[in-house]
Write a structure and sequence with these properties.
alpha/beta, 7 helices, TIM Barrel, 9 strands, 19% strand, two-stranded antiparallel ribbon
């Protein structure tokens, strides 16, 4: 089966860079299905920058935004993602990164300054209102350190002037959703509640 490196969902172009992820979220779509809209997002290998850019260039369908979001965490391929983002900007396209917010732990340095000018919007999975609950829901390989790292990343992106959205999934209790809303607003980010995809 041919690997799916780009796919369309609604009016956006999505880029599936990797299947690697440092979280194992209890609500992750990967636990329920192999992809979206008949697009199998499990990769036999990661596509090269050229392969992905060629696929982007071959598209005739218009799209409002290009989103780095597949069946893994795009920040594992930070340099490749930035190169593709610059290519998308050269085509006049807006870019968004959907991320678990642990790119600094993955790469070993603060990544937000590199996103500035390349990624227009960053959507960070907040998931829960404290480190203990986050650890239970997101099950990060980094343990309890992950929660603070995610918040620090979101705050750094706000400081860089990026459009930052923080999200939770509607499977957590309402009181936790409201606590997450306050955390998000305190960081200067926008807040969104996502629907669980069964």
């Amino acid at each position: 089966m041919k690997d799916t490196y780009i796919y369309f969902f609604e009016d956006k172009l999505y880029i599936n860079l990797t299947n690697r992820c440092c979280n194992d979220c209890t609500f992750c779509i990967r636990n329920n299905m192999d992809g979206i809209d008949n697009n199998n997002l499990w990769l036999s290998r990661e596509g090269t920058v050229k392969e992905i850019e060629d696929l982007i260039d071959a598209q005739t369908r218009d799209y409002s935004q290009a989103v780095f979001c597949g069946y893994g965490e795009s920040m594992y391929r930070l340099d490749d993602m930035l190169e593709i983002a610059r290519h998308l900007h050269s085509l006049g396209k807006k870019t968004r990164l959907d991320t678990n917010g642990l790119g600094d732990l993955i790469n070993g340095f603060e990544t937000a300054p590199l996103l500035k000018g390349n990624i227009d919007c960053v959507s960070v999975s907040l998931n829960q209102a404290n480190a203990e609950k986050y650890d239970e829901v997101s099950r990060p390989i980094y343990g309890k350190a992950a929660y603070k790292a995610m918040l620090d990343f979101a705050a750094a992106c706000v400081r860089q002037g990026l459009d930052v959205i923080m999200t939770v999934v509607d499977v957590i209790p309402q009181e936790d959703i409201e606590a997450c809303r306050k955390i998000c607003e305190g960081l200067g980010a926008r807040f969104r509640v996502r629907s669980y995809i069964k």
